[in-house]
Queue: 3 jobs
Job 1
Amino acid sequence: MDFYNMYNQKIPFYKVRNFGDKVSVTFSFFQQNLRYIWKYLLYTICPVGIIFGVGMNWFYSSSMSDFKDSDISTATAIGTSVATLFGGIIMTVGMAVVLAMIFALMQLYNERDNGLQGITFEEIKPYMINNFWRVIKYALSVIVFFVAASIVFVLLALFLQWFVLLLVIPAVIILFVVVQLILPVYMFEDISIWDAWQRGIKLSWKTFGGVLALAIVFALITDIVGSVFSIPWAVCFFIKALALTEDTVSAMATSPMFNTITYILAMLMGVGTFALSLLTYVAMSYQYSNAAEQEDAFSVQDDINDFNNL
Protein backbone atom coordinates (compact mmCIF):
# COMPACT_ATOMS: atom_id res chain seq x y z
CA MET A 1 0.00 0.00 0.00
CA ASP A 2 2.82 2.40 0.84
CA PHE A 3 4.50 1.53 -2.45
CA TYR A 4 1.25 2.23 -4.31
CA ASN A 5 0.75 5.57 -2.56
CA MET A 6 4.32 6.65 -3.19
CA TYR A 7 3.90 6.25 -6.94
CA ASN A 8 0.29 7.34 -7.38
CA GLN A 9 -0.50 10.14 -4.92
CA LYS A 10 0.12 13.73 -5.99
CA ILE A 11 3.67 14.70 -5.06
CA PRO A 12 3.97 17.77 -2.78
CA PHE A 13 6.61 20.08 -4.22
CA TYR A 14 8.02 22.00 -1.25
CA LYS A 15 9.08 19.32 1.20
CA VAL A 16 12.27 18.35 3.03
CA ARG A 17 13.45 15.02 1.62
CA ASN A 18 16.46 12.78 2.06
CA PHE A 19 18.56 11.68 -0.92
CA GLY A 20 16.59 8.49 -1.57
CA ASP A 21 13.26 10.32 -1.48
CA LYS A 22 14.48 12.88 -4.01
CA VAL A 23 15.47 10.11 -6.41
CA SER A 24 12.12 8.35 -5.82
CA VAL A 25 9.94 11.42 -6.42
CA THR A 26 11.84 12.17 -9.64
CA PHE A 27 10.90 8.78 -11.07
CA SER A 28 7.43 9.03 -9.50
CA PHE A 29 6.77 12.28 -11.36
CA PHE A 30 7.57 10.61 -14.69
CA GLN A 31 5.67 7.43 -13.75
CA GLN A 32 2.52 9.33 -12.80
CA ASN A 33 2.55 11.68 -15.77
CA LEU A 34 4.26 9.64 -18.49
CA ARG A 35 1.27 9.81 -20.85
CA TYR A 36 1.03 13.60 -20.65
CA ILE A 37 4.79 14.15 -20.70
CA TRP A 38 5.26 12.09 -23.88
CA LYS A 39 2.17 13.57 -25.50
CA TYR A 40 3.45 17.14 -25.26
CA LEU A 41 7.20 16.66 -25.16
CA LEU A 42 7.33 14.60 -28.34
CA TYR A 43 6.18 17.71 -30.21
CA THR A 44 9.33 19.45 -29.01
CA ILE A 45 11.83 16.61 -28.59
CA CYS A 46 11.26 15.04 -32.03
CA PRO A 47 12.13 18.13 -34.13
CA VAL A 48 15.14 18.87 -31.91
CA GLY A 49 16.24 15.25 -32.04
CA ILE A 50 15.94 15.18 -35.83
CA ILE A 51 18.04 18.35 -36.14
CA PHE A 52 20.56 16.85 -33.71
CA GLY A 53 20.76 13.61 -35.66
CA VAL A 54 21.11 15.24 -39.07
CA GLY A 55 23.71 17.63 -37.66
CA MET A 56 25.76 14.80 -36.14
CA ASN A 57 25.67 12.86 -39.40
CA TRP A 58 26.71 15.88 -41.43
CA PHE A 59 29.49 16.86 -39.04
CA TYR A 60 31.10 13.41 -38.87
CA SER A 61 30.62 12.77 -42.60
CA SER A 62 32.35 16.07 -43.39
CA SER A 63 35.15 15.29 -40.93
CA MET A 64 35.79 11.87 -42.48
CA SER A 65 35.67 13.33 -45.99
CA ASP A 66 38.23 15.98 -45.05
CA PHE A 67 40.40 13.32 -43.39
CA LYS A 68 40.29 11.22 -46.54
CA ASP A 69 41.11 14.11 -48.85
CA SER A 70 43.74 15.51 -46.40
CA ASP A 71 43.30 18.89 -48.12
CA ILE A 72 41.04 21.34 -46.31
CA SER A 73 40.62 24.68 -48.03
CA THR A 74 40.07 27.93 -46.15
CA ALA A 75 36.55 28.22 -47.59
CA THR A 76 35.72 24.70 -46.39
CA ALA A 77 37.07 25.44 -42.90
CA ILE A 78 35.08 28.68 -42.67
CA GLY A 79 31.93 26.98 -43.98
CA THR A 80 32.28 24.19 -41.42
CA SER A 81 32.78 26.70 -38.59
CA VAL A 82 29.74 28.75 -39.60
CA ALA A 83 27.60 25.64 -39.96
CA THR A 84 28.75 24.38 -36.55
CA LEU A 85 27.94 27.73 -34.94
CA PHE A 86 24.53 27.84 -36.63
CA GLY A 87 23.85 24.28 -35.51
CA GLY A 88 24.81 25.18 -31.95
CA ILE A 89 22.36 28.10 -31.94
CA ILE A 90 19.56 25.90 -33.29
CA MET A 91 20.28 23.24 -30.66
CA THR A 92 20.28 25.85 -27.88
CA VAL A 93 16.92 27.20 -28.99
CA GLY A 94 15.58 23.67 -29.38
CA MET A 95 16.72 22.68 -25.90
CA ALA A 96 15.15 25.87 -24.53
CA VAL A 97 11.80 24.78 -26.01
CA VAL A 98 12.13 21.31 -24.47
CA LEU A 99 13.02 22.75 -21.04
CA ALA A 100 10.20 25.30 -21.28
CA MET A 101 7.76 22.44 -21.80
CA ILE A 102 8.95 20.19 -18.95
CA PHE A 103 9.03 23.11 -16.49
CA ALA A 104 5.54 24.16 -17.62
CA LEU A 105 4.29 20.65 -16.91
CA MET A 106 5.92 20.68 -13.45
CA GLN A 107 4.47 24.11 -12.63
CA LEU A 108 0.97 23.06 -13.66
CA TYR A 109 1.30 19.74 -11.84
CA ASN A 110 2.11 21.63 -8.63
CA GLU A 111 -0.66 24.22 -9.07
CA ARG A 112 -3.56 21.97 -10.12
CA ASP A 113 -5.37 19.86 -7.53
CA ASN A 114 -5.51 16.88 -9.90
CA GLY A 115 -1.99 17.27 -11.28
CA LEU A 116 -1.80 16.97 -15.05
CA GLN A 117 -5.00 14.99 -15.40
CA GLY A 118 -7.08 16.44 -18.23
CA ILE A 119 -4.45 19.06 -19.10
CA THR A 120 -4.77 20.79 -22.48
CA PHE A 121 -2.22 22.57 -24.63
CA GLU A 122 -4.09 25.87 -24.17
CA GLU A 123 -3.29 25.64 -20.45
CA ILE A 124 0.35 24.79 -21.10
CA LYS A 125 0.99 27.40 -23.80
CA PRO A 126 1.28 30.60 -21.67
CA TYR A 127 3.54 28.81 -19.16
CA MET A 128 5.67 27.46 -21.97
CA ILE A 129 6.12 30.85 -23.67
CA ASN A 130 7.10 32.51 -20.40
CA ASN A 131 9.49 29.68 -19.55
CA PHE A 132 11.11 29.77 -22.99
CA TRP A 133 12.25 33.37 -22.60
CA ARG A 134 13.40 32.71 -19.05
CA VAL A 135 15.50 29.75 -20.23
CA ILE A 136 17.04 31.92 -22.97
CA LYS A 137 17.91 34.62 -20.41
CA TYR A 138 19.41 31.95 -18.17
CA ALA A 139 21.50 30.55 -21.05
CA LEU A 140 22.86 34.00 -21.90
CA SER A 141 23.71 34.65 -18.25
CA VAL A 142 25.57 31.31 -18.09
CA ILE A 143 27.65 32.33 -21.11
CA VAL A 144 28.52 35.65 -19.45
CA PHE A 145 29.38 33.87 -16.20
CA PHE A 146 31.71 31.30 -17.74
CA VAL A 147 33.42 33.86 -19.99
CA ALA A 148 34.09 36.00 -16.90
CA ALA A 149 35.26 32.94 -14.92
CA SER A 150 37.59 31.93 -17.77
CA ILE A 151 39.11 35.42 -17.92
CA VAL A 152 39.70 35.41 -14.15
CA PHE A 153 41.26 31.96 -14.33
CA VAL A 154 43.61 32.98 -17.18
CA LEU A 155 44.71 36.10 -15.28
CA LEU A 156 45.37 34.03 -12.16
CA ALA A 157 47.33 31.51 -14.22
CA LEU A 158 49.53 34.27 -15.65
CA PHE A 159 50.45 35.55 -12.20
CA LEU A 160 50.40 32.39 -10.09
CA GLN A 161 51.28 29.88 -12.84
CA TRP A 162 51.54 26.25 -11.65
CA PHE A 163 49.74 26.90 -8.37
CA VAL A 164 46.54 27.62 -10.29
CA LEU A 165 46.64 24.16 -11.85
CA LEU A 166 46.23 22.66 -8.37
CA LEU A 167 42.95 24.56 -8.07
CA VAL A 168 41.50 23.58 -11.43
CA ILE A 169 39.68 20.37 -10.45
CA PRO A 170 38.15 21.61 -7.16
CA ALA A 171 37.24 24.93 -8.81
CA VAL A 172 35.46 23.16 -11.68
CA ILE A 173 33.56 20.90 -9.26
CA ILE A 174 32.49 23.85 -7.11
CA LEU A 175 31.38 25.91 -10.14
CA PHE A 176 29.52 22.90 -11.54
CA VAL A 177 27.61 22.38 -8.28
CA VAL A 178 26.77 25.97 -7.34
CA VAL A 179 25.06 26.72 -10.68
CA GLN A 180 22.79 23.64 -10.63
CA LEU A 181 19.84 25.21 -8.77
CA ILE A 182 19.83 28.59 -10.54
CA LEU A 183 17.51 27.47 -13.34
CA PRO A 184 14.94 25.79 -11.02
CA VAL A 185 14.96 28.92 -8.82
CA TYR A 186 14.33 31.10 -11.88
CA MET A 187 11.55 28.79 -13.11
CA PHE A 188 9.63 28.43 -9.85
CA GLU A 189 10.09 31.87 -8.30
CA ASP A 190 9.00 35.23 -9.70
CA ILE A 191 12.40 36.98 -9.44
CA SER A 192 14.94 38.51 -11.81
CA ILE A 193 17.72 36.45 -13.38
CA TRP A 194 20.39 38.08 -11.22
CA ASP A 195 18.38 37.47 -8.05
CA ALA A 196 17.99 33.87 -9.22
CA TRP A 197 21.78 33.59 -9.50
CA GLN A 198 22.25 34.85 -5.95
CA ARG A 199 19.54 32.64 -4.49
CA GLY A 200 20.48 29.61 -6.60
CA ILE A 201 24.14 29.78 -5.55
CA LYS A 202 23.11 30.26 -1.90
CA LEU A 203 20.78 27.23 -1.93
CA SER A 204 23.28 25.11 -3.88
CA TRP A 205 26.04 25.92 -1.42
CA LYS A 206 23.87 25.09 1.59
CA THR A 207 22.92 21.71 0.08
CA PHE A 208 26.24 21.12 -1.72
CA GLY A 209 26.44 17.39 -0.96
CA GLY A 210 22.88 16.70 -2.06
CA VAL A 211 23.30 18.61 -5.33
CA LEU A 212 26.58 16.85 -6.14
CA ALA A 213 25.18 13.40 -5.30
CA LEU A 214 22.07 13.89 -7.44
CA ALA A 215 24.14 15.26 -10.34
CA ILE A 216 26.47 12.24 -10.25
CA VAL A 217 23.67 9.66 -9.93
CA PHE A 218 21.58 11.05 -12.78
CA ALA A 219 24.64 11.64 -14.95
CA LEU A 220 25.47 7.95 -14.56
CA ILE A 221 21.88 6.92 -15.30
CA THR A 222 21.64 9.07 -18.42
CA ASP A 223 25.08 7.93 -19.66
CA ILE A 224 24.35 4.23 -19.14
CA VAL A 225 20.84 4.30 -20.58
CA GLY A 226 21.92 6.79 -23.26
CA SER A 227 24.45 4.27 -24.56
CA VAL A 228 21.47 2.20 -25.76
CA PHE A 229 20.67 5.04 -28.18
CA SER A 230 24.24 6.07 -29.06
CA ILE A 231 26.04 2.72 -29.56
CA PRO A 232 24.08 1.62 -32.70
CA TRP A 233 24.82 4.95 -34.38
CA ALA A 234 28.49 4.80 -33.30
CA VAL A 235 28.82 1.29 -34.79
CA CYS A 236 27.45 2.57 -38.11
CA PHE A 237 29.96 5.39 -38.22
CA PHE A 238 32.77 3.02 -37.27
CA ILE A 239 31.84 0.99 -40.34
CA LYS A 240 31.85 4.20 -42.41
CA ALA A 241 35.34 4.98 -41.08
CA LEU A 242 36.53 1.50 -42.10
CA ALA A 243 35.21 2.23 -45.59
CA LEU A 244 37.98 4.83 -45.96
CA THR A 245 40.63 2.11 -45.84
CA GLU A 246 38.80 -1.10 -46.74
CA ASP A 247 37.40 -1.39 -50.25
CA THR A 248 35.27 -4.40 -49.28
CA VAL A 249 33.43 -2.30 -46.71
CA SER A 250 33.12 0.80 -48.88
CA ALA A 251 30.28 -0.47 -51.08
CA MET A 252 28.04 -1.35 -48.12
CA ALA A 253 28.85 1.80 -46.10
CA THR A 254 28.00 4.12 -48.98
CA SER A 255 24.78 2.39 -50.02
CA PRO A 256 21.48 4.34 -49.74
CA MET A 257 20.04 1.72 -47.36
CA PHE A 258 22.99 2.00 -44.97
CA ASN A 259 22.89 5.82 -45.06
CA THR A 260 19.16 5.77 -44.31
CA ILE A 261 19.68 3.47 -41.34
CA THR A 262 22.47 5.73 -40.07
CA TYR A 263 20.22 8.82 -40.25
CA ILE A 264 17.38 7.02 -38.44
CA LEU A 265 19.74 5.85 -35.67
CA ALA A 266 21.13 9.38 -35.34
CA MET A 267 17.62 10.79 -34.95
CA LEU A 268 16.76 8.15 -32.32
CA MET A 269 19.98 9.01 -30.52
CA GLY A 270 19.02 12.69 -30.52
CA VAL A 271 15.50 12.04 -29.21
CA GLY A 272 16.81 9.66 -26.54
CA THR A 273 19.55 12.05 -25.44
CA PHE A 274 17.18 14.98 -24.95
CA ALA A 275 14.51 12.86 -23.27
CA LEU A 276 17.02 11.43 -20.77
CA SER A 277 18.46 14.88 -20.02
CA LEU A 278 15.06 15.88 -18.59
CA LEU A 279 15.60 13.45 -15.70
CA THR A 280 18.37 15.64 -14.32
CA TYR A 281 16.33 18.85 -14.58
CA VAL A 282 13.36 17.29 -12.76
CA ALA A 283 15.69 15.89 -10.08
CA MET A 284 17.30 19.30 -9.58
CA SER A 285 13.85 20.87 -9.32
CA TYR A 286 13.05 18.60 -6.38
CA GLN A 287 16.50 19.34 -4.93
CA TYR A 288 15.60 23.05 -5.17
CA SER A 289 12.24 22.48 -3.47
CA ASN A 290 14.03 20.60 -0.68
CA ALA A 291 16.55 23.42 -0.19
CA ALA A 292 13.88 26.14 -0.42
CA GLU A 293 11.73 24.37 2.16
CA GLN A 294 14.68 24.15 4.54
CA GLU A 295 15.46 27.83 3.99
CA ASP A 296 12.00 29.43 3.84
CA ALA A 297 9.40 26.82 4.87
CA PHE A 298 7.24 27.50 1.80
CA SER A 299 4.83 24.66 2.64
CA VAL A 300 3.98 26.30 5.98
CA GLN A 301 3.31 29.61 4.20
CA ASP A 302 1.04 27.82 1.70
CA ASP A 303 -0.89 26.17 4.54
CA ILE A 304 -1.38 29.56 6.22
CA ASN A 305 -2.59 31.12 2.95
CA ASP A 306 -5.02 28.22 2.38
CA PHE A 307 -6.37 28.65 5.91
CA ASN A 308 -6.86 32.41 5.40
CA ASN A 309 -8.73 31.72 2.16
CA LEU A 310 -11.31 29.50 3.88
Job 2
Amino acid sequence: MKYDYDISRQLQDDLIKAYNKVAHLCWSQAEAYQKTVIQPAPRFYVSPKQALQIISPMVKGDFSRVELMRPIKKRMYYALYDVVVKLSEKRQFVGKSLFYILQFAVLSPAPEFYISPVNFSLIRAGMIKGTISDDGRPMKTEAQKRSYEKLKKKRKELREYREKMKMLKMTPL
Protein backbone atom coordinates (compact mmCIF):
# COMPACT_ATOMS: atom_id res chain seq x y z
CA MET A 1 0.00 0.00 0.00
CA LYS A 2 1.37 3.41 -0.95
CA TYR A 3 2.01 5.66 2.04
CA ASP A 4 0.62 9.20 2.01
CA TYR A 5 3.38 11.43 3.38
CA ASP A 6 1.17 14.55 3.34
CA ILE A 7 -1.20 12.92 5.83
CA SER A 8 1.78 11.69 7.85
CA ARG A 9 3.22 15.21 8.05
CA GLN A 10 -0.15 16.64 9.01
CA LEU A 11 -0.47 14.02 11.76
CA GLN A 12 2.96 14.95 13.10
CA ASP A 13 2.15 18.66 13.11
CA ASP A 14 -1.21 18.14 14.80
CA LEU A 15 0.29 15.80 17.40
CA ILE A 16 2.95 18.37 18.29
CA LYS A 17 0.29 21.08 18.64
CA ALA A 18 -1.76 18.82 20.93
CA TYR A 19 1.37 17.88 22.89
CA ASN A 20 2.26 21.54 23.42
CA LYS A 21 -1.24 22.14 24.82
CA VAL A 22 -1.06 19.38 27.46
CA ALA A 23 2.66 18.91 28.21
CA HIS A 24 2.90 21.71 30.77
CA LEU A 25 -0.01 20.19 32.73
CA CYS A 26 1.61 16.75 33.13
CA TRP A 27 4.03 15.36 35.71
CA SER A 28 5.98 13.21 33.26
CA GLN A 29 6.64 12.90 29.57
CA ALA A 30 4.88 9.52 29.50
CA GLU A 31 1.77 11.14 30.97
CA ALA A 32 2.01 13.93 28.39
CA TYR A 33 2.20 11.36 25.56
CA GLN A 34 -0.80 9.50 26.97
CA LYS A 35 -2.89 12.67 27.26
CA THR A 36 -1.82 13.89 23.82
CA VAL A 37 -2.97 10.83 21.90
CA ILE A 38 -6.45 10.88 23.49
CA GLN A 39 -7.00 14.54 22.60
CA PRO A 40 -9.59 15.15 19.85
CA ALA A 41 -7.90 15.19 16.45
CA PRO A 42 -8.76 17.64 13.66
CA ARG A 43 -9.33 14.75 11.21
CA PHE A 44 -8.97 11.01 10.65
CA TYR A 45 -5.43 10.36 9.44
CA VAL A 46 -6.26 7.97 6.64
CA SER A 47 -6.78 8.67 2.94
CA PRO A 48 -10.26 8.25 1.43
CA LYS A 49 -8.87 5.47 -0.78
CA GLN A 50 -7.51 3.51 2.20
CA ALA A 51 -10.73 4.08 4.14
CA LEU A 52 -12.81 2.86 1.20
CA GLN A 53 -11.10 -0.55 1.30
CA ILE A 54 -12.14 -1.06 4.92
CA ILE A 55 -15.42 0.86 5.17
CA SER A 56 -16.98 -0.55 1.98
CA PRO A 57 -17.34 -4.10 3.37
CA MET A 58 -18.55 -2.64 6.69
CA VAL A 59 -21.38 -0.81 4.92
CA LYS A 60 -22.39 -4.15 3.40
CA GLY A 61 -22.38 -5.76 6.85
CA ASP A 62 -19.00 -7.51 6.68
CA PHE A 63 -16.96 -6.52 9.72
CA SER A 64 -14.51 -9.44 9.49
CA ARG A 65 -11.64 -7.40 8.07
CA VAL A 66 -11.84 -4.71 10.72
CA GLU A 67 -12.19 -7.29 13.49
CA LEU A 68 -8.73 -8.65 12.61
CA MET A 69 -7.09 -5.26 13.20
CA ARG A 70 -5.28 -4.07 16.28
CA PRO A 71 -7.47 -2.34 18.87
CA ILE A 72 -6.45 1.25 18.07
CA LYS A 73 -6.98 0.87 14.33
CA LYS A 74 -10.22 -1.02 14.94
CA ARG A 75 -11.55 1.86 17.08
CA MET A 76 -10.59 4.34 14.36
CA TYR A 77 -12.44 2.48 11.61
CA TYR A 78 -15.53 1.98 13.77
CA ALA A 79 -15.55 5.72 14.57
CA LEU A 80 -15.07 6.54 10.88
CA TYR A 81 -17.89 4.14 10.01
CA ASP A 82 -20.17 6.01 12.44
CA VAL A 83 -19.26 9.31 10.76
CA VAL A 84 -20.01 7.82 7.32
CA VAL A 85 -23.41 6.57 8.51
CA LYS A 86 -24.29 10.00 9.94
CA LEU A 87 -23.11 11.82 6.81
CA SER A 88 -24.98 9.47 4.48
CA GLU A 89 -28.24 10.38 6.26
CA LYS A 90 -27.76 14.09 5.53
CA ARG A 91 -29.66 15.49 2.58
CA GLN A 92 -26.59 16.64 0.59
CA PHE A 93 -25.09 13.11 0.71
CA VAL A 94 -28.18 11.05 -0.14
CA GLY A 95 -27.52 9.10 -3.36
CA LYS A 96 -23.78 9.91 -3.38
CA SER A 97 -21.10 7.24 -3.68
CA LEU A 98 -19.30 5.91 -0.64
CA PHE A 99 -16.00 7.31 -1.92
CA TYR A 100 -17.58 10.77 -2.22
CA ILE A 101 -18.85 10.59 1.37
CA LEU A 102 -15.48 9.30 2.63
CA GLN A 103 -13.72 12.35 1.20
CA PHE A 104 -15.70 14.42 3.71
CA ALA A 105 -15.70 11.84 6.49
CA VAL A 106 -11.91 11.57 6.78
CA LEU A 107 -11.70 15.36 7.09
CA SER A 108 -14.21 15.50 9.93
CA PRO A 109 -12.91 15.80 13.50
CA ALA A 110 -11.87 12.52 15.10
CA PRO A 111 -12.46 11.71 18.78
CA GLU A 112 -8.75 10.94 19.28
CA PHE A 113 -5.52 10.60 17.31
CA TYR A 114 -5.70 6.78 17.14
CA ILE A 115 -2.00 6.31 17.78
CA SER A 116 -0.31 4.68 20.75
CA PRO A 117 1.71 6.81 23.17
CA VAL A 118 4.77 4.71 22.30
CA ASN A 119 4.41 5.44 18.58
CA PHE A 120 3.95 9.13 19.32
CA SER A 121 7.12 9.12 21.42
CA LEU A 122 8.99 7.53 18.49
CA ILE A 123 7.62 10.14 16.07
CA ARG A 124 8.60 12.95 18.42
CA ALA A 125 12.05 11.48 19.00
CA GLY A 126 12.55 11.15 15.24
CA MET A 127 11.61 14.78 14.72
CA ILE A 128 14.00 15.90 17.47
CA LYS A 129 16.90 13.73 16.24
CA GLY A 130 16.29 14.75 12.65
CA THR A 131 15.55 11.26 11.29
CA ILE A 132 12.21 12.51 9.93
CA SER A 133 12.47 15.09 7.15
CA ASP A 134 10.38 18.24 6.84
CA ASP A 135 7.96 16.54 4.44
CA GLY A 136 7.31 13.67 6.90
CA ARG A 137 9.39 11.03 5.14
CA PRO A 138 11.94 8.99 7.08
CA MET A 139 15.46 10.20 6.26
CA LYS A 140 18.01 7.68 5.05
CA THR A 141 21.23 7.23 6.99
CA GLU A 142 24.57 7.22 5.22
CA ALA A 143 24.79 3.43 5.56
CA GLN A 144 21.35 3.04 3.95
CA LYS A 145 22.40 5.33 1.08
CA ARG A 146 25.61 3.33 0.49
CA SER A 147 23.67 0.07 0.58
CA TYR A 148 21.17 1.44 -1.92
CA GLU A 149 23.97 2.57 -4.25
CA LYS A 150 25.53 -0.93 -4.11
CA LEU A 151 22.17 -2.47 -4.93
CA LYS A 152 21.71 -0.10 -7.88
CA LYS A 153 25.17 -0.99 -9.17
CA LYS A 154 24.50 -4.75 -8.92
CA ARG A 155 21.15 -4.35 -10.70
CA LYS A 156 22.87 -2.43 -13.50
CA GLU A 157 25.54 -5.14 -13.84
CA LEU A 158 22.87 -7.84 -13.94
CA ARG A 159 20.89 -5.94 -16.59
CA GLU A 160 24.05 -5.55 -18.72
CA TYR A 161 24.87 -9.24 -18.30
CA ARG A 162 21.38 -10.27 -19.43
CA GLU A 163 21.60 -8.01 -22.48
CA LYS A 164 24.99 -9.50 -23.32
CA MET A 165 23.57 -13.04 -23.03
CA LYS A 166 20.67 -12.10 -25.31
CA MET A 167 23.09 -10.78 -27.89
CA LEU A 168 25.17 -13.98 -27.74
CA LYS A 169 22.08 -16.12 -28.31
CA MET A 170 20.98 -14.02 -31.25
CA THR A 171 24.28 -14.02 -33.17
CA PRO A 172 24.77 -16.88 -35.63
CA LEU A 173 27.84 -19.09 -35.15
Job 3
Amino acid sequence: MTTHFITAEIDLPETAEELHAAIEAELQKQGEPLRWAVTDVDVARQKATIEGYVLVEGTKVEVETSVTA
Protein backbone atom coordinates (compact mmCIF):
# COMPACT_ATOMS: atom_id res chain seq x y z
CA MET A 1 0.00 0.00 0.00
CA THR A 2 1.15 3.51 -0.74
CA THR A 3 -0.15 6.99 -0.09
CA HIS A 4 -0.66 9.54 -2.83
CA PHE A 5 -1.13 13.30 -2.57
CA ILE A 6 -4.13 14.41 -4.63
CA THR A 7 -5.28 17.85 -5.75
CA ALA A 8 -8.81 18.06 -7.16
CA GLU A 9 -11.33 20.70 -8.14
CA ILE A 10 -15.03 20.15 -7.55
CA ASP A 11 -18.22 22.12 -8.08
CA LEU A 12 -19.58 23.80 -4.97
CA PRO A 13 -22.82 22.09 -3.92
CA GLU A 14 -25.71 23.68 -2.02
CA THR A 15 -25.04 22.21 1.45
CA ALA A 16 -22.10 21.21 3.63
CA GLU A 17 -23.29 17.59 3.61
CA GLU A 18 -23.26 17.55 -0.20
CA LEU A 19 -19.80 19.14 -0.18
CA HIS A 20 -18.44 16.43 2.11
CA ALA A 21 -19.98 13.69 -0.06
CA ALA A 22 -18.62 15.27 -3.27
CA ILE A 23 -15.10 15.51 -1.81
CA GLU A 24 -15.13 11.90 -0.62
CA ALA A 25 -16.46 10.71 -4.00
CA GLU A 26 -13.79 12.62 -5.93
CA LEU A 27 -10.97 11.29 -3.76
CA GLN A 28 -12.39 7.74 -3.91
CA LYS A 29 -11.65 7.78 -7.64
CA GLN A 30 -7.94 7.68 -6.74
CA GLY A 31 -7.97 5.46 -3.63
CA GLU A 32 -9.19 5.38 -0.03
CA PRO A 33 -9.29 8.94 1.38
CA LEU A 34 -7.16 9.30 4.50
CA ARG A 35 -7.37 13.05 5.09
CA TRP A 36 -8.21 16.11 3.05
CA ALA A 37 -8.70 19.87 3.25
CA VAL A 38 -10.43 22.55 1.21
CA THR A 39 -7.53 24.79 0.21
CA ASP A 40 -9.28 27.32 -2.03
CA VAL A 41 -12.78 28.43 -2.95
CA ASP A 42 -13.50 30.36 -6.13
CA VAL A 43 -16.90 31.90 -5.48
CA ALA A 44 -17.18 33.43 -8.95
CA ARG A 45 -16.63 30.03 -10.64
CA GLN A 46 -18.40 28.09 -7.84
CA LYS A 47 -15.41 25.71 -7.52
CA ALA A 48 -13.51 24.35 -4.53
CA THR A 49 -9.94 23.09 -4.59
CA ILE A 50 -9.28 20.03 -2.44
CA GLU A 51 -5.94 18.60 -1.36
CA GLY A 52 -5.74 15.24 0.31
CA TYR A 53 -4.00 11.94 0.81
CA VAL A 54 -5.39 8.64 -0.40
CA LEU A 55 -4.29 5.09 0.29
CA VAL A 56 -3.75 2.95 -2.79
CA GLU A 57 -3.58 -0.81 -2.36
CA GLY A 58 -1.62 -3.13 -4.58
CA THR A 59 0.37 -0.49 -6.38
CA LYS A 60 2.31 -2.30 -9.05
CA VAL A 61 5.82 -1.12 -9.72
CA GLU A 62 7.25 -2.11 -13.07
CA VAL A 63 10.98 -2.65 -13.17
CA GLU A 64 12.83 -2.83 -16.47
CA THR A 65 15.79 -5.15 -16.60
CA SER A 66 18.23 -5.60 -19.41
CA VAL A 67 19.48 -9.02 -20.36
CA THR A 68 22.93 -9.41 -21.81
CA ALA A 69 24.28 -12.62 -23.23
